[in-house]
Automatic annotation (TrEMBL):
One of its GO terms (biological process) is rRNA processing. Keywords: Nucleus, Phosphoprotein, tRNA processing. Its main location: nucleus. One of its GO terms (cellular component) is ribonuclease MRP complex. Belongs to the eukaryotic/archaeal RNase P protein component 1 family. This is Ribonuclease P protein subunit p29. Pfam families: RNase_P-MRP_p29.
Length: 220
């Protein structure tokens, strides 16, 4: 039986298998249709050629699914954040006492950053640490400004952007003070440092990686 693809069953075999016998034409048509379904990529002439020469290996055709690139979910843009008012401090939250715990945490943060503030601690070292420190919660005072109305303003920094400090004052008012042309003082445990806003126009996240150069003189 080697090399036989299909043949007519005898009446005894058909009776044993409980099937209805078919003639050679029906059997050939069935086999041809079956091979076309199993080998969709081959033409009929090629299938017939292979039947005449050798056995046919049936393969299951699987369509390769294209890998879809996973889209990285982008965060909100600055415009969308402004529209949603994510960083807006509501009027009922603009109270100095609410931010005193933040100020106390900031003072402890600076003490740890400077390995303790002792009497023999070098002021230059504190100044260097403050340049790269997060100032949210610090108590600052405007010492000099080209806008006289800002001079003497004091409060806790509750928000910082590239160009402004938002300060909550002791009389529960939220003030936006521009960094440009303004000198701020920061006091921690009797150590006073000065921040020249014109040289400080960076976001806090960018400031931590910036290398500051010593300047001989700084003008407002």
């Amino acid at each position: 039986m080697e090399g036989v693809i299909y043949k007519t069953l005898s009446s005894a075999e058909a009776k044993e298998l409980n099937i209805q016998t078919q003639g050679p034409k029906e059997s050939e048509a069935f086999v041809s249709a079956f091979l076309k379904r199993c080998l969709p990529g081959l033409r009929e002439e090629v299938i017939q050629e292979r039947l005449n020469r050798k056995a046919v290996i049936l393969e299951h055709s699987v369509k390769q699914k294209k890998k879809q690139k996973r889209k990285r979910r982008k965060g909100l843009s600055a415009k969308e954040k402004r529209q949603l008012r994510l960083f807006e401090i509501k009027a009922e939250q603009q109270r100095y006492n609410l931010f005193l715990p933040l100020h106390n945490l900031w003072k402890q943060y600076i003490r740890d950053l400077c390995n303790g503030l002792r009497a023999d601690t070098q002021p230059q070292m504190i100044q260097t640490k403050l340049l790269k420190a997060d100032l949210h919660g610090s108590l600052v005072t405007v010492k000099k400004s080209k806008c006289p109305s800002y001079v003497g303003l004091s409060g806790i920094i509750v928000q910082e952007t590239k160009h402004i400090f938002k300060i909550i004052t002791k009389d529960d008012k939220l003030k936006a003070v521009p960094k440009c042309n303004t000198v701020f003082s920061v006091e921690v445990d009797d150590f006073i440092s000065y921040i020249y806003g014109s040289r400080f126009q960076l976001r806090s996240s960018e400031r931590s990686a910036k290398k500051f150069k010593m300047k001989g003189s700084i003008d407002l």
